[in-house]
Amino acid sequence: MNTKYKKTAKFPATARLHKSYEYKAVLNGKILSKGRFFSVNSALCMSEDKMHLTGRIGLVISKKMARNAIIRNAIKRVIRESFRLNIIILPRRDYVVRLCNKIPLSSLRNIKKNVRSEIDYHFNKISKCTKI
Fold first, then answer.
1. Which residues does residue 72 pair with via DSSP β-bridges, in sequence order?
2. Which GO terms describe its biological process (predicted)?
């Protein structure tokens, strides 16, 4: 990753999905990547802002899969940070990252490390796809 880009990488509100119909459209779309804990769905970018040149992300982290609020919030922070750093290599689409399997109880540091490695794997896999 380019260190110059790391300093300028931003995650504005326009890079997030907000409305339920936006989530629904993406969740009905194609599953681009599925791993041990997460699946990443994608659909064409529905942003009204035509000048927006990057993709958008939504997160579905349910209480059923991660009981503790501290763990859920940490997972969301790690995913948003990874998206912020990888946004330049990802195709301009809407993405939803969904937690599909229960997170086993371990230290918060181990959970963050496992989440980061899996999410980076998904984003790298998606960035290498030519037919999305």
1. none
2. tRNA 5'-leader removal
pLDDT digits (tens, 9 = 90+) for 48-65: 655 566 789 999 999 999
Strand 56-60 to 93-99 pairing: parallel
Q: By three-state DSSP, how is residue 91 classified?
A: coil
How crowded is residue 132: how many other Cβ atoms within 10 Å of its Cβ?
14
Average pLDDT over residues 102-111: 94
CA 95 to chain centre: 6
Which tokens hold the place of 13? Answer: 């509100």
Mind listing the domains of the chain with CATH numbers?
3-128 (3.30.230.10)
What separation, in Å, do the N-terminal and C-terminal C-alpha atoms of the chain show? Answer: 23
Asked if 74 and 58 count as a contact pair (C-beta separation under 8 A), the reply is no
What amino acid occupies position 35? G
* Exposed e or buried b per residue across 25-44, where buried means at least 16 C-beta atoms within 10 angstroms of its C-beta: bbeebeebbeeebbbbbbbe
CA 11 to chain centre: 12
Instruction: For residues 1 and 18, give the distance between their C-alpha atoms in angstroms, rounded to a whole number.
Output: 28
Which of 32, 123, 116, 40 shows the shortest CA–CA distance to 79? 116
